[in-house]
Design brief:
By secondary structure, the protein is an all-beta fold. It has one domain (8-94): SH3 type barrels. The protein is built from no helices and 11 strands. A 4-stranded antiparallel β-sheet has the order 2-1-8-9, with no helix packed on it. The protein has a 3-stranded antiparallel β-sheet with strand order 3-4-7, with no helix packed on it. Strand 8 (68-71) and strand 9 form a beta hairpin. The model has no long low-confidence stretch (mean pLDDT 92). The structure holds zinc ion (ZN).
């Protein structure tokens, strides 16, 4: 898998382009991630009854994999992920500085 929970990423497209965040949740079926505080949308709700008074609700939307890039913790640059196959494992490596991430 390209991204992992807790990975630091930078948004490369969309309204929050250039912002950074840590992956909070990954939606594998949608190929998208949730970044806390980013890609927030507001929805205006009408008052329905006493339990649903309406108002503005803010909710985060998942960002597709294609709109984020992994930030390498070693060199601090947005990078593409490469893979190195070792005897027992598959390691993620940074394309820029070649370190395991
Ligand atoms: Zn790097």
């Amino acid at each position: 898998m390209k991204f992992k929970k807790g990975d630091e990423v930078i948004v490369t497209a969309g309204k929050d382009r250039g912002k950074r965040g840590k992956i909070e949740k990954i939606f594998y079926k949608k190929d998208a991630v949730l970044l806390p505080g980013l890609n927030i949308f507001k929805r205006h709700l009408k008052k329905r009854d006493e339990k649903n008074p309406g108002g503005i609700v803010e909710f985060p939307r998942a960002i597709p994999f294609g709109n984020i890039a992994l930030l390498c913790p070693k060199c601090g640059k947005p990078t593409r992920v490469g893979y190195k196959i070792t005897k027992s494992d598959k390691e993620r490596v940074c394309h820029k500085c070649d370190s395991t991430i």
